[in-house]
Structure formats: C-alpha cells, structure tokens
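Field reference: sequence -> structure
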Amino acid sequence: MSAIITMSRLRKEFDDLVAVEGLDVSIPAGEIYASIGPNGAGKTTTIRMACGLLEPTEGHVTISCVDVHHDPERAQQFIGYLADFFSVYEDLKVWEYLDFFANAYKMPEVEIPSRINEVIRQVELEVKRDALIRGLSRGMKQRLGIARAIIHKPRVLLLDEPASGLDPKARLDLRNLLRSLRDGGTTVLIAMGCWSADKGHAQEFFRDFYAWLDGSQFVLLGVWSAATCGQSVARERELKTFDFLKITRLTPAEIMVGKLLGAPIVAYFIIACTLPISLVAGLAGGVRPSAVLGSMVLLIAFNLCYSLAALLLSMLVEKNSSGAVILLGLLATYYFMKMFVQSPFKGFAAISVLPALFSLHGFYDVIGHTSPAVFGMTVSWAILSLVLYVLLGAWLVLMIVRNLKRDIPQIQLLSRWQGVGLVAFWNLLFYAFLDIHSIQVHPVPLHIYHLYYFASEIASYAVGWNALFLFLVGIAALEPPEKLKIWWRKWKAGEGPYFSSDGLPLPWLVAAAIIGYAMLAGEALGLRSVIPLGEWHLSFAAVAFAAFLVFTARDVLFLQWCLLTRMKHPVIKGILFIVLYNGAATILGVMVSVFASPEAMKKVLTFLMPYALLGEMIDLARPPRLIFAALALQLGICALILLAIQRRLARPVHAPAAP
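Structure field:
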C-alpha cells in the first residue's frame, strides 16, 4: 500500500535545543499511527511540522505526494488537525461552529448542511446540535474538535494528545470514533505519551506544581523587592535618617549594595528555601535541567535589574513610591513582550522576562517559534534577556551611584556626555534588533514598493525612537538652579563659555540628535545592497530629526524654567503642563476638523505638535514649506523661553539683613 504521509530526514531546532532529529517515517493510507514518547520528546513538534504550522530546520514532509512546506495550501486541503489545547468559539452553537469552518475550508455551499449533519452523527453529538458550546463537557468539546477537523473530508487526521484530560468512558468513545474514521479511509496520526496513567498523572502534577512555584517566585521576589527598594531611600528621607548615611565614609556604591541586598532580605530567605523544592519539582515533572537552572539565573538577574529601577525611583521622589514601582514593573513586563515579540524589533521583548521563561519551558505558541536576532545572528531569549539585564543594570548603577548622596534638587541623573552616550546605546540596540530577513528573501527589482515601505517605516521608527530619548536625555541633563546660576555669573563675567557642561542642555540635545541621524544614515549605507540608498529619503529624515530637536528643546527649556521658579515638584508639574498642552492641541485639532476640514486640522496640528509634523512629512510628494513655517514658530517660542530663563538667572541675589 502506498504511503500517504512521508517524513524524510526531518530535523527541528529551537535555539540550542534539537526537538526532532533525523526522523524518517512512511505511513500507509487507511491506518492509525501513533507517535509515542515522554514530554519533550518532539511529538507535538512533529505533528505541527506535518500540518505545516512549523517549518522544519531540515528535511521535508509530504501529504498525498504534496510537499507541505513548498505547497501548503494544496497540502492542507488533505489535512485535518486537532491540537492538544484548543479553544472554541463558546458563543456559537455546535452546528454554527461547524458551519463556520466548513465555509472557511471553502466547501460548496450546497454540500455544507448535509455534511454538518453527517459529521454530527459521526461524533455522536446529535442531542447537542443546537446547544451552545460553552455548555459542553470536556469530552464533548474534544469530539466537536474532531468534527471540525474532519468537516472537509480530509485524507489525513493529525491529533495531538486527543485523550488528554478525558475520563475512561470518553477515551473509549474516542477510540471507537477513530476506528470508524479509519474504516472510512482516513489515515490517523496521533501523538501520545508513553507513561502509565499513575505515572503520567504524577509527572503532570509535578510539572504543574513547578510552573506554579516558578511563577510565584518571580512574582514574590519582584513585588517584594519593588515594595522594599521602592521606599528604601524615600522612607529614610521622611524619617530624617538618610543624612546620617550621607555624612559617613560609606560610598554611594556601598550604600546601594546594602539596600539592594538588605531591603528585600526576607524575600531572599523565602526564595532560598523554595529553590531546592522548585528544582526537585521541575526535574520530577520532566522539565529539562537546563530550563530549571536557566530560570533560576533569570530570577536573580531580573530581580536585581528591577530592584535597581525601584531604588532609582525611590531616590528621585520624596515619598514612598513602592506602589508605582510595582505597577510600572508589571505593565512593563507585559507590554514589552506584547508590543515587540511580533514586531521588526523582536529583541526588545527580551527586556520582559516572559519570553525567556516561555522559551525555556517550551511554550512557543505564546511567543512564536522564531528566536530574536542581534545584527542578523539568532540568539536565545534567555541569553539575550541576561545580557540586556546586565547592560540596563549598568546604566541604572551609574545613575544611582552618581546621585545617591545628593538632595533631590541637586540630582542630575547623567552628565551631559553620558546622556549622549545613552542615546547612542539605545540606537545601537535599535539597529541591532532590526530584523531584515523579511526583506532579504525578496529580489529588489520585483519588490521595490515593499522596500520603499520598509525603508520609510524604519526611518519613521528611528525618528520617533530618538524623539523619545531626546526628551528623556533632556530631562536627565536638567541643571540644578544653583549650578545654573553659577554658570550664568561666570559667563557674564567672561570666565566661561556659553555652551558649557554646567549650562543649558541645548548643545547636548543637538549632539544626541546628530548621533541618532548618523546611525540611521549608517544603517541605510549598510543595507544599500538590499535597499537602494535613495529609498530611505535621508534628506527628509534630516528635517524630521531637526523638527523633533526643536520641539524637544522647547519642552526641555520649559522644564528648566520650571526648575528656576522654585515651584514644588517642578519637573513633574512641568511634564504635566506639557501633557495638558498636547491634549489641548489635540482637542483644538478635532474642533478645526469638525468646523472646517481635516486638511485644516493637519495644518493647525503641524504648528503645534511634533508627531503631527512627522505625519505631514510622510507625504513626500509635497514640499515641506508648512514644516519650515512650523519650525520657525517653535524656534521663536524657544527664544522666548530662553529669555525668561535669562531673566530668572539675572535676578540679583539679596544678602540677608544685618542684625
């Protein structure tokens, strides 16, 4: 009998893990075939490669003499597939669910009603035909899943652990159903575990317990560290005890280490007690030892980086900030993964610890089966996360050690050149994580539109990215009022230059913008063999960088003026004023759109908001005259703010009256 399923020299790698190695299988038509093995043996990976959901590293799969990966649409018409854990549309009725998938498989309309009735009889769900899916039992949902998989009369049925979670009667019903399908000519390939019922349940229990304990350790240590480190400095300021530490011979680095290791000491003790239990549970549950140990290393690295961020925030505020640190940490952990894991900059998702944990434990359905790349070289999620935590931790240490013994008004997170270096660092990550594989597979002459779109998208990302960091560097470079007044007096007396490291932050904003643009131009030159240099429109990108530089300079100068006014919490209030300004500008634009036209709204917002100006620049067919007019207006506003700053600095200092 001829083979209907053929797998030749099949191999699949995930990072440093070989899931399937040299698999050669030929399965004749009309047979039930089982792939049996323990967890992690590669059964699910094999099934997913067989149905075309996963591309093999080497080898190929054919179904009915059709290569699954060279001609997937043709091959998949012969395939029915049921995953181990599958979801259903619970708001649909049973027949509606099958009708939806029958149409999705593009079956002839006239055949669908009779085929639905036939399949429902075949899986013995006649009494549930009009029932909502949410009311079905686990076994009934499993039968419905098989009905969905065979609705289009496939020649091959691929089932991944179909008996998982079913009671003995449901398993018997499933066996009879598969035999009836085989007798009807369908070839069935099943992935199933090799353990006995008792051993399988025990391993599943330990695996679930390990997953729960591992996640609990990350949550406990992260939340506890945030709560303690996030209030360690601010609390001492409230109690008036921090000054005692500042006048001792302890260095800022020693104080920082003491707080990092001492503040969450109870959490460290709890984790130290539970790590051996976690190790034993993971190994008993069939988890790879490398995954268990990797998770432990990640726990330490992630917590130290998170604790440093919490300590930095505590240093910047006067009151307890632990709640804000916990909330920001949870949001960052989730959104960094959600925003970047499927983006052209996949590597940034490694800032969240979740992709590394998912990859270590094999949950590739959540993060996808492709690993991140650094300068085109594939690296594992865990290694990339560890490297990022070390690099980000180094920047946090620099900011903490530089300012830990200073009072809040004297804090300057980074020196001017360090701020410029931070912009260069984030730009380096930006281009290191850029995934160009999607365009390298296309020949340039046939896909010039896609290349243009890709180039313009990357240029837009680069401009927006640098705009954000220009603003953050501007905040970090704000000069304390006393130092700024000293610089002013020296400059007025002719004892120092106007553009000094103790003066206004404008020159360093310019330097940071130049670095950002230079790295974009370098990326364009590096990819000129793939994308023609002219497709990047670097002249327009230069105008965009200049535009964001002007808008950022306006906002940073406004924050510097707020510092000179001696208002309480000047930077926070200044940022709130900037947010309110942008909100008011948006409302004004909406009103102009309602009462005039969308085109008028564009023009108004171009004068008021930098991102509206960038949107104006994307239309490269029009000359950017409006843009230059908007920049002239913003430069005028910058000049007015500079004048206000100089008037503040020029105020005479009054000596106290004599007694």
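Note: Confidence is low (pLDDT under 50) at residues 195-200, 438-452, 616-623, 655-659.
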